[in-house]
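Subject: for your reference before the review

Hello V.,

The reviewers asked for a structural picture of the protein, and I figured it would be easier to keep everything in one thread rather than splitting it across files. Below is the amino acid sequence we used in the manuscript, unchanged from the supplementary table.
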Amino acid sequence: MKSASSSLEAPVSVRVLLPNAFQKHTNGTREIQSNAGNLPELITDIETNFPALKTHLRDEQGQVRRFINFYVNEEDIRFLGNEKYAFKDGDEVLVIPSIAGGSCACCSYCDQEDCTCC
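And here is what came back from the structure prediction:
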């Protein structure tokens, strides 16, 4: 018979590096530790710690914005299984907003001109 403690999984500790572009919404915080087991949990954890980032990470339908990329140990999470990837203890996650060129004066987060979200 298994003991209760042997059936419990050890918590995962993930190092999350946030981009400079987010620092005005994180009071200058560049890095956090998270116990998230996967990408959806991590995004929720980031939003819990920094509520102002929610509009920068998710669109109006609650989906991760298409220009936000996540890398686990320098590998694009989309190639690791995306939301199905289970973080491992010690993983390093980079949150990278895509940067696009062009002459549009729109905000890259909300696609509005003269927005107040940034």
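For the response letter, the relevant points are probably these. The beta strands are 14-17, 31-34, 68-72, 75-76, 92-97. The first strand starts at residue 14 and ends at 17.

Happy to draft the paragraph if you're swamped.

O.
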